[in-house]
Amino acid sequence: MTEPRIKLAEVEHVYEGRSGAVQALGRTDLTVQPGEFVSVVGASGCGKTTLLRIVAGFVRASTGSVEIDGEQVTGPAPERGVVFQRPSLYPWLSVAGNVEFGLKMRRVPRKARRETARRYLDLVGLGDFADAAPYELSGGMQQRCQIARVLATEPSTVLMDEPFGALDALTREKLQGELRSIWAAEQRTVLFVTHSVEEAVLLSTRVLVMSPRPGRVILDLPIESDPADDLATLRTSPAVLAAAEKVRAAVTSGPA
Ligand SMILES: Nc1ncnc2c1ncn2[C@@H]1O[C@H](COP(=O)(O)OP(=O)(O)OP(=O)(O)O)[C@@H](O)[C@H]1O
């Protein structure tokens, strides 16, 4: 059997905030295999971002163990790329410069990083904007650039926190389709936090529903869909619609 890409065992998290202790995450056990696309949904404040930040290594869980490919997570690492809701591009660098940045830090030679940046900019549809400044891009294009920047460093695991939450509906649909195609082509492992049940069910191979705080996984639902299917087909697929119903029921009514 293959080593799990992500493994959380008996993880809990309590924040010591200014207004006292807040238990954000209840006991969580989770195993994600390489190549899975796992979405996490649940009510606001249920601990989705906390879970993602623990896997990213930004937050150290109060208890339990977190492993990536069998290694304990002790902090952030390049094999885990994080895409935030709002793109934070370097304004003094061009679009290509932003995508190349992580590779430059790793001392990848100039020619190789140019080629990699070009490939990922093409993949996200920004091939014609390599020399543009970030402020010349729309919000959706900036988010594409952030996704290219993260993918260019070729992380084994991509952690995405509401990456399309700030976009208009049409741009969001377009980026969902692009992300799905990229995932189908590259088979990276994805952990994806979203408020949208539809988005979760359409994009994922598996959807986790968390209970209200302290968040625990109350539904772990595999989604049957073919990676080759386009999103337009999936939106009306009976299996996808039935899965969305189940997820929605769990989000609104809690554990069965
Ligand atoms: N740095 C922090 N210090 C103290 N409490 C925090 C901190 N970060 C989050 N919390 C609390 O932990 C709980 C879970 O927060 P988290 O951001 O993980 O939830 P979420 O499900 O991602 O929420 P949303 O869907 O609204 O983004 C919330 O009650 C929040 O107030």
UniProtKB/TrEMBL annotation:
SUPFAM superfamilies: P-loop containing nucleoside triphosphate hydrolases. PROSITE patterns: ABC_TRANSPORTER_2. Keywords: ATP-binding, Nucleotide-binding, Transport. Residues 6-237 form the ABC transporter domain. InterPro entries: AAA+_ATPase, ABC_transporter-like_ATP-bd, ABC_transporter_ATP-bind, P-loop_NTPase. CDD domains: ABC_NrtD_SsuB_transporters (cd03293). Gene3D superfamilies: P-loop containing nucleotide triphosphate hydrolases. GO terms for molecular function: ATP binding; ATP hydrolysis activity. PANTHER family: ALIPHATIC SULFONATES IMPORT ATP-BINDING PROTEIN SSUB, TAURINE IMPORT ATP-BINDING PROTEIN-RELATED. This is NitT/TauT family transport system ATP-binding protein/taurine transport system ATP-binding protein.
